[in-house]
Amino acid sequence: MPATLTYNSLVSDMQTYSERSDANFVAQIPRLVMMAENRIATEAHILGYLTPMTGGLLVGQYAISKPNFWRETVSMNFTDANGNANQILPRSYEYCRNYWPNPNATKPPRYYADYDFNNWLIAPSCDQNYTYEILCYVRQQPLDTATQTNWLTLNAPQLLVAACLLEAQLWIKNFDRLQFWQAQYDRALAAFTAEDHARDADRNVVIRQNG
């Protein structure tokens, strides 16, 4: 059976690579893993974090709740009564409020903005019920003893291990190894970023067929 990184094996690897198994270090590992996951989510725009979410818009609605662990919005659209997808375009909060100052007036949505970290604002307020689809970057479900695997452990274990050990060197102040693990993290991150940039290019290529 192929080897798979899990939360428990990650905890063990961190002790082995850091040559630390004392109680203080072991107690800190869950926080170090959390810091590493946040580092990756902040610095990596990779396909594994790209998540489509769907839902319903109601008449008069002008705000949509963001998913847990949201990081960045890519696109938003709603489906009209004819089954056509209509793009909702990104604008600033101020633009949306100036464009549609009365939230009680309704019309098909045209623009969206960050309302706050947990919600989007849409303008105009919905004139009828719609379904929406939003594509956004979302941090993976955090690892712990109950959640042993996620996209990172299955698809990017080298990136996760390097990020965890980088955080570990910072905590134990092992600056001799800090540069090494920073380089390992940077290398893994660059590889995944390049791979996803290639996919982005593929999405924009128009394939012409003869005949």
Write the layout of secondary structure elements.
Elements: H1 7-18, H2 23-43, E1 50-57, E2 63-65, E3 70-79, E4 85-87, E5 89-90, H3 93-99, E6 111-116, E7 119-123, E8 130-138, H4 151-155, H5 157-172, H6 175-203
Parallel strand pairs: 5-6
Antiparallel strand pairs: 1-8, 2-7, 3-4, 3-8, 6-7
Helix pairs in contact: 1-5, 2-5, 5-6
How would you explain this protein's 3D organization?
By secondary structure, the protein is an alpha+beta fold. It has two domains: 7-46 and 156-200, no CATH class; 50-138, no CATH class. It is built from six helices and eight strands. It has helices at 7-18, 23-43, 93-99, 151-155, 157-172, 175-203; strands at residues 50-57, 63-65, 70-79, 85-87, 89-90, 111-116, 119-123, 130-138. It has a four-stranded antiparallel β-sheet with strand order 1-8-3-4, with no helix packed on it. The protein has a four-stranded mixed β-sheet with strand order 2-7-6-5. Helix 1 packs across helix 5 (157-172) and helix 5 packs antiparallel against helix 6 (175-203). The relative contact order is 0.20.
What is the gist of this entry?
With 211 residues, the chain is an alpha+beta fold. It is built from six helices and eight strands. The C terminus is likely disordered.
Q: Give a count of the beta strands, DSSP E runs of length 2 or more.
A: 8
Which radius of gyration do the C-alpha atoms yield? Answer: 22 Å
The share of residues in helices is 40-55%
CA-CA gap between termini: 48 Å
Largest sheet: 4 strands, antiparallel
Strand content: 15-25%
The side-by-side strand order for the widest beta sheet comes to 1-8-3-4
Overall structural class, as computed from helix and strand content, comes to alpha+beta
- The figure for the number of domains is 2
**DSSP helical segment count:** 6
What is the mean predicted local confidence, pLDDT?
Answer: 92
So what's the oligomer here?
Answer: single chain
Rough outline: elongated
Uncertain parts? 206-211
